[in-house]
């Protein structure tokens, strides 16, 4: 029996054009460029203008990934997001149709900032079980839709963007083949990151809801501590399952939540910090988009080169975490999507 693996065939990213600097935020919030840079590593972020939604970001990133893969056709579209256009239906079918892919399987994955890694795992499953030969996996979030502009702890970190990859069926030992996965969750921490209202518990209809309950809230310190612990343990698990040694990892592409978390993760894994792929300075925390956006950025700028052993690891609300590995393949050039730091 031959094993079909999911192999990376294309990558693309997109951020909306509007750049918001730390100085812009400091004008309306009790914060400073110095605090934001030193505590988070963020220098600027991109935010959508009114009227632009998650599906718009997803379509732009997906077009670039499909171009890079050299194919307009896939058998399934998976969108990881915590900011779907509507709570019902899922965003993926509309994204698929706007890409000319009406008819394919299309569904959303909700695992907050871990969503892209969960979505990769489900896509790899579709390929392994012959349900699909090609899958488009998108991470997209318009986190500004749930950001309380008056909350300085979240408004300075959350941002908007999308990233996408095309996976194709291939052999487990070829470059680009996704390796083992490690996925996990701990619902005991479900209050640590949440948008309290709008679901079935605090409904939009009926009793009045506190307007603040529609916003993203986070216990930053507790989340920080958990993020390092969980991503470190999950990273060790997939590296071991892949048969690699930790010091053979060339690049760590982790969820971009805070440069201090990325540095702490590298330290915990005993890896040099220069192995971290970081674009948080330019794009902030883009939720489910952050890993594919970082991949697209690093591919376009040559930070990821063919043959690199790459570790992907994420942590987010739920709580959820997940990791996988791959050897970076030779990909056609991808259109560069980001403006540089101001
Ligand atoms: O994407 C999903 C996963 N998310 C994460 O992994 C995020 C994890 N958490 C974090 O990145 C950090 O906890 C934050 C960036 C959210 C906050 O940084 P922190 O270093 O943990 O700050 P803190 O919450 O411990 O607050 C330290 C101080 C407080 O003041 P006092 O009580 O010491 O006087 C805060 O009120 O910094 C204050 N503070 C700010 N000051 C200026 C909090 N936010 C700001 C701000 N500007 N924007």
TrEMBL record:
Residues 240-328 form the Beta-ketoacyl-[acyl-carrier-protein] synthase III C-terminal domain. The active site is at residues 113, 255, 285. Keywords: Acyltransferase, Cytoplasm, Fatty acid biosynthesis, Fatty acid metabolism, Lipid biosynthesis, Lipid metabolism, Multifunctional enzyme, Transferase. It comes from the Bacteria. Residues 256-260 are annotated as: ACP-binding. It catalyses: malonyl-[ACP] + acetyl-CoA + H(+) = 3-oxobutanoyl-[ACP] + CO2 + CoA. Pathway: Lipid metabolism; fatty acid biosynthesis. Residues 107-187 form the Beta-ketoacyl-[acyl-carrier-protein] synthase III N-terminal domain. The keyword Lipid metabolism applies. Its EC number is 2.3.1.180. Its main location: cytoplasm. It is found in: Cytoplasm. GO terms for molecular function: beta-ketoacyl-acyl-carrier-protein synthase III activity. HAMAP family: FabH (MF_01815). Catalyzes the condensation reaction of fatty acid synthesis by the addition to an acyl acceptor of two carbons from malonyl-ACP. Catalyzes the first condensation reaction which initiates fatty acid synthesis and may therefore play a role in governing the total rate of fatty acid production. Possesses both acetoacetyl-ACP synthase and acetyl transacylase activities. Its substrate specificity determines the biosynthesis of branched-chain and/or straight-chain of fatty acids. The last Arg residue of the ACP-binding site is essential for the weak association between ACP/AcpP and FabH. Belongs to the thiolase-like superfamily. FabH family. Homodimer. This is Beta-ketoacyl-[acyl-carrier-protein] synthase III. The gene is fabH.
